[in-house]
What we know:
This protein is mostly helical. It has helices spanning 3-22, 26-46.
Amino acid sequence: MSDASSKVRRSARLICSITIWFEVDAVAASRCEEEAYTVAMLAVARLPLTLR
């Protein structure tokens, strides 16, 4: 896993850990993390190479 990918994964996990506080549902938190990761990686892929 690339450095950028692992940073995005950690950020997604941190953001979605909030889900656990309000909605004690590990499945929802896991799904949230995967969706956040996918969206973030798609956004990074669209950045010009000079901004990555």
